[in-house]
Structures are given as C-alpha cells and as structure tokens.
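cron nightly-structures :: item 1 of 1
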Amino acid sequence: MDNTMLNRFYEDNVKMTRNETSQNVEFVKPLVHGILQYVHERDKRFQIQPLNVGSYYSNLKVSRADEFDYSVVLDAGSSFSWTPEHRLIMDSMEIMKWLKHQFHCRQHQLGNALLKFQEVKRRFKALVSEAVNRPQIRQYVDAKRLSESPATTLTISHPNIVGDTISVDLAPLIKSHAPFKPEFGWPRSGARWPSWAKIEEIKAEGIHEVAKDPFYWSLSFVMCEKKLVDGIDLNGTCRKKSQRIIKKLREMWCPKGTKQELTSYHLKNILFWECENHPYDAEWTNEHISVRIVSMCYLLIQHIQRGNLPLYFHTGVNLLENKDRDVLGQVVQNIFRFLKNPEHYLT
C-alpha cells in the first residue's frame, strides 16, 4: 500500500474543510448554550456547561462537521464508589446494555433521594423540548426524535450551516468518578502505552455513568477515552490520521442496505489496541501510515473472526456481542478486497 495514495485520499476524502467546519461550529455552540441555559434555569441539577465528547471534539471526525455530541452533567450531589450493591449491579452489565436482564430499572441513592433514570430522561427531554419549541428556535430545529432515544437528538436545518443538516446529541451524564476495578483489566501490567502520566490522569478522572440505553444508566468511559486521545499526536505522529482514514474506509466496507454492525466506536477501540501493541512514536510517523493502516485492518479482521472485540478500558465487555455475524463476515471480505486492491478504494 502506497503512503502517497493514502495521503491523497486523506486530503481529498477525509480531512474537513476548515472554513466549513468553523461555520458549523459557530452556529451550533450558541444554540446548544441557549438550550442548556433554558434547561438549567428550570432545573438547576442540569449544568449549563456540557462536556464536549464525540469524534469532532477529539479530532476524529471525517469529511464534515455535521454531528456534535454533548454530555450534559447532572449534579447528583454526591460522590460514588464501588459499594457491594454497585459490585452486584456492575458485574451483571455489558456496555450499553448492562442490567437489562436482571433489573427493571436502576436507581442511584443520592442522599435521601432516589434518582431513577426514567425520571431524569423524562424531565430532561421535556425541558429540551420546551427550549427548542420557542419561536426563535423551532423554525430550524427538528425535535421530532425526542421520544425515540435516551440521548435527545436535535436535527438542525439553517441557511447558515454547511450541508443539509446538523445532528446534535445531548445525553445526561452523572460524574461518578468511580475508580477502575481490577477485573476491568486496565491499566495492563507491562504495557508501554499509554504513559504513566496519562494513566494517572485517566484514573483521576474515573468512570462516569451516562444514558446510553433506553431504560438504564450505563458505565461511561467517554471522558477516559477523550483524555486518552488528547495529546496522542503531540510529537507529530499519525495516530488520529490513521484512525480517520479507517473510519472513512468503513463506509465502503459496510454492506449497503444492511444494519451498520461495524461502528466508529469499534474502530476507536481498534486504535487504542493498536497503540498499545505498537507503543512507540517511531512506529507512528507519517512514513509508517500504510504499515499502521494494514496492521489495524488485520487486527480488526482478527477480532471479527474471533467474535470478540474487548472494550479497551474493560476487557470483560465484548463490543461484538449480539452483532450479526453474517454482516460482519461481509465486512471482513470487503476489508480483504481492500488489502488486495487498495487502489480501487483510494482513487
């Protein structure tokens, strides 16, 4: 695979145009601030300043800034730790779906009050709905999906944005700051990546809980992942660039007309595992980008064929569980076709 071809593909198909990106960001930020300010004024538990998460704010977005993800911090008024009750509950969880089989709903004990996810979801969505239905906003914000997803999704159409629409996800998050448990398998003994300083930074942040499932709170490593990505190319390496190229190629690997069983979140975890397997900056120079792309492809194939892609921060979670094996098998075949004839995909 040719580095020149990959770099050209990156410039032509992956890299976002700075002016277009700036235009969309400048439109979205005050809009989100206004909505969250309205929500906060009516319920002080929801903080105005959101956490900027998602691929755009980690510089992993491809092509166009048309999706923005925010975690809206819910002031729970208490710190969290791994109590015996938490141990019982957490050990029955799987990422995005924990607790589904054993508990009808999960509650947080916050002082003398019980915080149920359903109540938080209902309250937050009602307030966001009120905010976007104000005359100055409702003409260009479509909130029809408010009742369909735990994350409140807004679709924005406006003459001042680039592209047809912008999607904004707002998801309530509890900053639990829970410590990593030994059974999560992170950090790994003997691993040379990330650095000790980065590990300590991530451990200080801890684990939070977010509304990722229609009915339950789930463990969230979103801020751990963000901190891991921050500064990842400080020495001029190509880790993010490699990830963005793989994300763009995913659009061609996934069969048309089928459910997208391979997601960008899978690929983010592939990046993390590749970084741990190849921890040195010298392995991630721009001259090695074709080597890293090929290596990440084979790593992805390996995990799909095994039917197990461990979550980087919690190896007990299989991100491929309950995925359609036939569809993923087609993805593997398309990756092999890419490796055999990359020119067909890159030119």
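cron nightly-structures :: done
The chain has a mean pLDDT of 84.
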